[in-house]
Write a structure and sequence with these properties.
280 residues, alpha+beta, three-stranded antiparallel beta sheet, 7 strands
Amino acid sequence: MHSASPFADDVYIRIGSGVTLGDHRAAFAVAVDSPGVRLMARKISARHENPFLAPLSSRFDELDAQMWLENVVVPWDRVFPTASAASPPAARPDQVTWAWTNWHQLYCLYAKGEFSLGLALALTDIMGQKGNPKTREHLTDMMVELEAVRSALVASELDPDWSSPTGIPSPNLRHLAAGSLRMMQNQRKLNEILRIIPGSSMVTAPSDAELADPVLAGLEQSFGGGCYTALQRSAVLHLAWDHVSSALDARESAFELHANRGAGLWRTKTERSFPIATVS
């Protein structure tokens, strides 16, 4: 599975491929338009054509694909011997690249969480829930969880790993592991809060076509009011629905499980990052 390869010029294939060059593992970069390269994007998502009803899933998200190489010529200036195949992971120079990939994944998860918080704040405003103590408690819970993940990201940069033989620092995996585990454990909680704040209005929000139908003029009175028209309030409600209650949410969760490789891997990385004393 290669992320964004249908939109990339080159794809970097690292030592996990098992390709060797002498006694070294070899990484290489291949141009996507090289003869013999084939890409097959993941299946099309179920989407609604109306961007008002599905502002997120109505847009494309087929970013990931299988990549097939058949008799592809890779120029030598795109081949990179990394380390001995027998070298421990910490001694391999491309671990710096791998660490920054892990940092990027956590940053993306955090950005999604920030979007959820921003949407929760918008829903609180349009639904007139600013003075509701329970709603304020939910928002505080979201802020606390996201600040913990943000702290892990910052710590991974300010307390970097210098173990690479190249002397190039990389994000500290111990901090990234803590942040990734926290984000994976609490993503469901963030989504649930987004479903709670607007109440049943998120389920019954009218479409733009229904709001424009004179026969259904009562919808304006039902969903309009305060500083917002029914169209404005419905637009935010549909955005929230598409984010946490549509097929897009399940599809994205399945992708993130495999791209991030789950809590089990990150717990193992955390364990390996601490020296274990041997008791004689």
